[in-house]
Amino acid sequence: MKNLILGGIVGSIVSGFLVSAYLNQLYSNELKSLISESAKSQIIDNIRFITLMDENGILSEERKKEEGLQLVLALSILSTIKPDVSAFTAAPKEALCKAIEYEESGGISFELAGEAGDHVASYLSEIKKPLMDSIKKSQSVLGGSGCKLSFGLRQLRPELFQDEKS
Q1: pLDDT tens digits, the chain, 166 residues: what are they?
Q2: Cβ neighbours of 14 (radius 10 Å)
Q3: What distance, in Å, lies between the first and last C-alpha atoms of the chain?
Q4: Residue 160 domain-assigned?
Q5: Which structural domain range is residue 58 located in?
Q6: Does some domain include residue 56?
Q7: Are 91 and 135 in contact (CB under 8 A)?
Q8: Residue 90 forms part of a structural domain
């Protein structure tokens, strides 16, 4: 009888640990997902702002460093969580692609971020191929070129525009 009770207690403890580990993993994944979404949103906003300044010719060298530092903060979060970039929706894919383009062309600078900037530059190099492969795959269906994915109805449903050609 004593062994039966002891076995029940041990079984309860073990199952409690298993349930606790499962719930911890579940909440951990949910938390990672929320943090990742927040970082992606910040990256999209940063890239839109940088692009706007660049297109209007007001992206000075000092501003490139400042904006690069802001971008490093958000990209550092993604580089820590390491989400599957090919599973991102269009806007984060486009923003990451633009971040890679800007970083490679000197359009932004991670200089002020020091080691963190080097880490982020390495992360961007690491994700470049899977990201670009995913963008190209999406472009084959949706249209677009470079970092841009086109969602125009003309590309999605060309049969609707047959009359315009006549």
Answers
A1: 555 454 445 445 545 555 555 555 656 778 878 888 888 999 999 999 998 998 899 888 888 888 888 899 899 989 988 889 999 988 999 999 999 998 898 888 888 888 888 999 999 999 999 999 999 998 888 888 888 887 665 555 667 656 554 4
A2: 10
A3: 90
A4: no
A5: 38-151
A6: yes
A7: no
A8: yes
DSSP H helices in the chain: 2-55, 61-81, 90-105, 115-142, 153-156, 162-165
Taking Cα atoms as reference points, which of 151, 20, 165 lies closest to residue 89? Answer: 151
Contact 65, 112 (CB under 8 A): yes
Residue 164 lies in a domain: no
* Total domains in the fold of the chain: 1
C-alpha gyration radius of the chain: 23
128 contact partners, CB below 8 Å, separation of at least 6: 100
